[in-house]
Amino acid sequence: MRIEGEKRYALLLAARDSDYVKKVYGGYFNVFVAAFGEGGERWDLFRVVDGEFPSMNELHNYDGFVVSGSPYDAYGDDSWILELCFLLQTLDAMQKKVLGICFGHQVLCRAFGGKVGKAYSGWDIGLRKVKIVKDFSSCSFLDGLDEFPPALSIIECHQDEVWEVPVGAEVIAFSDKTGVEMFAIGDNILGIQGHPEYTKDILNNLIDRLLTNDAIEKGIAEDARLKLQVAEPDRKCWGRICRAFLKGKWNQ
């Protein structure tokens, strides 16, 4: 039951917790709540990767939803991914706020008719400068960005990307590596290709696991680690952007 006046959000977790994240942070849920949550809110966890979804009669209780990253392909036909696409379409019809991160960004694109596939230029791992196109956007939650620098650094870890945004979507950020770093549909759908919630240690551990599994070449890992040594992600700025989108207001 919802408490009157209480803001309620749900994390749709599309990845299983790594041993490292469980040990250090208690799970990805805590990482997301630390990045996007505020006092006086309730956050719930649904492990959609394992088929755990909110019931349809619960959806109206939530003010917003966050879709996490995932090692799965957003263009795959796993049953839980298809169910997730249907849920996202339902949430949009209800005008619920939905924030998609990495895989979440891509699956939002797919759910609304865009195109997603392997990145033409291969893996992007490490820090990336992202240019936000705020001057020409009609998205009201971007109105508070004037105080931010024109480009923000974000942690990236993906080998898929948005090829073509859905009809009616706006591309509101890009980089020299990826043409669609962020897109929005109206004021209730936002996708971010990078990981505003990630800390450098989470990415370093992920790089170790990708190397161990022969998912990336050693040179890619070394380049990513070098980037992490010489610069910092703008986590505070990205956190404010995400919170402003989900809550409809700008806070520190």
Gist of the model:
With 252 residues, the protein is of the alpha/beta class. Helix content is 31%, strand content 24%.
Which structural traits does this protein have?
single chain, about 250 residues, alpha/beta, nine-stranded mixed sheet, two-stranded antiparallel sheet, 7 helices, cytoplasm, Glutamine amidotransferase domain-containing protein, peptidase activity, Class_I_gatase-like
Describe the structure.
The chain is an alpha/beta fold. The chain is built from 7 helices and 11 strands. The strands form 2 sheets. It has a 9-stranded mixed β-sheet with strand order 2-1-3-4-11-10-9-6-7, with helices on both faces. Strands 5-8 form a two-stranded antiparallel sheet. Helix 3 links the parallel strand 3 (64-67) and strand 4 (97-101). Helix 5 packs antiparallel against helix 6. The chain is globular, with a radius of gyration of 17 Å. The two termini are 30 Å apart.
Question: What's the arrangement of secondary structure elements?
Answer:
Blueprint: E1 7-12, H1 19-25, H2 28-36, E2 41-46, E3 64-67, H3 79-93, E4 97-101, H4 103-111, E5 115-118, E6 124-132, E7 151-158, E8 160-164, E9 170-174, E10 182-185, E11 189-192, H5 200-212, H6 218-230, H7 235-247
Parallel strand pairs: 1-2, 1-3, 3-4, 4-11
Antiparallel strand pairs: 5-8, 6-7, 6-9, 9-10, 10-11
Domain Glutamine amidotransferase: 56-200
Protein name: Glutamine amidotransferase domain-containing protein
Pfam family, one: GATase
